[in-house]
Write a sequence for this structure.
């Protein structure tokens, strides 16, 4: 029994991840309740989606899964599928833009967050990262960067680089999927048009197919670090790499497809709403 | 009576084994790495098949060890491991090397008194029912 | 104006990426892991049952290798290669230690460790520890190990990393050798390390 429990304990405890997940989950829950009370209720599905995202992110970073991710290429790819795609995607479906402002204590918002948010460096950085050209480049670029064999080698050996890798994948994905799934109405500041979102989602697909296929179809082992430090269990390096390639290739691209479908649905329903005659207020 | 039987059997076996000596297979550079105490040792050699048919090494017998198995080491998955193999094919006209980090004989529980510099004879058994006695040179842990 | 700005941002990002990819060539033959892995630190015991830590090897260059003694092929072959590499460094060999860490403490009693280390010569020290100590060390250097199922005679296989970590005399992790690296390659880098 105790041996089962230790799989649920962090392999390498990270206060930052714990804090991130507790804050992300806690503030959202608080906000969700206050939304209800203030008469602007957010449904159960966004709640479930958001919390599932947070829990998934925590599980892949702070359980025995993390050990496996360090010692098996395809599980590492699965970890990044959650960090870079699935987890943030589910979180952004939870309408955090609506809920979190209710969750964060107002005094903290007024004293810290608002001034920070409106400061020039933050505005500039945000504008850069959420730029319609930079965002997809960064989203795909990070996948490529951490999969460069030399970079990957050092990231897997150095605990701090490993942390940096996982955080960069997670934080970039939160920004990226926020940009794509932004639920705010038309003409909200910094909001990207639906057409542009679909173009971005389409653009990020081919590079992911290419790198996934490159791994899945390679005749040699590309990532020697697992050969050096040892895989979690005996499996041929090529089989490991082939599964890793498929994980990078297929589910990652499916996320784009689902993204496009969601954006299309929203686009159509918004068009329908705007074409209806304005409701008469009595 | 029983002793008589055993002698007869041994003689028959000896005669039999000489009759089916592997004419096509020759062995060379046979050596054993001895580890301290009763730790398992490893045996290495080259097997040359001068015949026209593939012959398989199916087993090894010897009184100096409690059990002898054919193993293959692999480091390819990053984890150093060993795998037992039932037999090892020696294709016609080819040389197969049992060498460090590859195929080797795993020799369990060596009898006491084996010393580097000495020799020990093991009998190789092949799929064509032939047998080949081979003298192995004993070396120390570092292979010297 | 907006479009112009976009292009500028894109170019800036490209520059950052290119700058990040450029590296100076490494003077080492083996993998240079300086700054990537933590300094040498462990608590284990040796063949006499005495507790050993990194402090006992301060001032020595250390080669750290994980294995188990019931391994007749890979472990002795690797150790013999390391011994040969150390011998090739000449005088520097005196202050170079090969630490063989057995990850199979159930079978590798102090007695076995003692004889095993001696069999490879004065440079080699065989160490082992409790599962907690071994796990801490393997986690520190991000290597894996595990046990196979025991056969009818109770024999089981142990899988372990093939990495050799090399530390300088201050205990800093410097180089990483793999199973494929020859004694000559390893000795080349050991000489360079000794000359520092």
């Amino acid at each position: 029994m105790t041996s089962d429990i230790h799989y649920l304990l962090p392999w390498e405890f990270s206060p930052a991840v714990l804090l991130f997940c507790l804050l992300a989950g806690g503030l959202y829950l608080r906000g969700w309740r206050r939304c209800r009370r203030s008469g602007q209720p957010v449904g159960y599905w966004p709640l479930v989606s958001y919390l599932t995202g947070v829990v998934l992110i925590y599980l892949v970073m702070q359980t025995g899964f993390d050990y496996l991710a360090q010692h098996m290429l395809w599980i590492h790819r699965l970890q990044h599928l959650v960090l870079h795609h699935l987890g943030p995607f589910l979180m952004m479906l939870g309408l955090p833009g609506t809920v979190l402002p209710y969750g964060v204590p107002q005094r903290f918002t007024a004293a810290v967050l608002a001034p920070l948010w409106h400061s020039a460096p933050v505005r500039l950085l945000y504008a850069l990262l959420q730029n319609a050209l930079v965002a997809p480049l960064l989203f795909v670029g990070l996948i490529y960067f951490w999969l460069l064999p030399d970079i990957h080698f050092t990231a897997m050996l150095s605990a701090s680089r490993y942390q940096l890798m996982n955080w960069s994948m997670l934080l970039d994905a939160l920004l990226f999927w926020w940009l794509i799934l932004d639920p705010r109405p038309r003409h909200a500041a910094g909001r990207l048009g639906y057409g542009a979102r679909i173009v971005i989602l389409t653009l990020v697909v081919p590079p992911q197919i290419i790198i996934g296929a490159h791994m899945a179809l390679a005749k040699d082992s590309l990532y020697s670090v697992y050969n050096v430090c040892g895989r979690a269990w005996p499996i041929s390096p090529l089989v490991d790499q082939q599964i890793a390639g498929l994980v990078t290739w297929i589910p990652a691209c499916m996320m784009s497809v689902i993204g496009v479908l969601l954006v299309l649905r929203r686009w159509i329903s918004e068009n329908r709403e705007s074409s209806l005659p304005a409701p008469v207020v009595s | 009576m029983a002793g008589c039987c055993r002698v007869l059997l041994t003689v028959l076996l000896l005669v039999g084994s000489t009759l089916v000596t592997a004419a096509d297979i020759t062995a060379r550079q046979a050596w054993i790495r001895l580890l301290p105490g009763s730790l398992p040792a490893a045996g290495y050699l080259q097997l040359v098949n001068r015949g026209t048919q593939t012959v398989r090494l199916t087993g090894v017998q010897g009184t100096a060890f409690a059990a002898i198995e054919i193993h293959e080491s692999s480091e390819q998955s990053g984890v150093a491991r060993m795998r037992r193999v039932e037999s090892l094919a020696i294709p016609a006209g080819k040389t197969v090397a049992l060498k460090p980090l590859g195929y080797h004989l795993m020799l369990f529980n060596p009898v006491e008194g084996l010393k580097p510099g000495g020799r020990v004879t093991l009998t190789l058994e092949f799929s064509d029912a032939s047998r080949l006695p081979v003298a192995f040179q004993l070396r120390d842990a570092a292979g010297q | 104006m907006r479009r112009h700005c976009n292009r500028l941002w894109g170019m800036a990002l490209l520059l950052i990426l290119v700058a990040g990819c450029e590296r100076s060539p490494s003077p080492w033959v083996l993998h240079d892991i300086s700054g990537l892995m933590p300094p040498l630190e462990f608590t284990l015991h040796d063949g006499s049952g005495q507790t050993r830590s990194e402090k006992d090897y301060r001032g020595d260059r250390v080669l750290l290798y994980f294995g188990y003694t019931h391994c007749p092929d890979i472990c002795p072959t690797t150790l013999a290669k390391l011994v040969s590499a150390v011998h090739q460094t000449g005088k520097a060999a005196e202050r170079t230690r090969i630490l063989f860490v057995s990850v199979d403490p159930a079978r590798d009693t102090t007695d076995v460790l003692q004889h095993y280390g001696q069999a490879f010569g004065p440079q080699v020290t065989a160490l082992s520890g409790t599962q907690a100590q071994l796990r801490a060390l393997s986690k520190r250097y991000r290597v894996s190990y595990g046990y196979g199922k025991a056969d009818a005679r109770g024999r089981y296989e142990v899988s372990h990393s093939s990495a050799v970590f090399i530390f300088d005399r201050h205990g800093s992790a410097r180089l990483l050798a793999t199973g494929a690296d020859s004694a000559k390659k390893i000795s080349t880098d050991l000489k360079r390390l000794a000359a520092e």
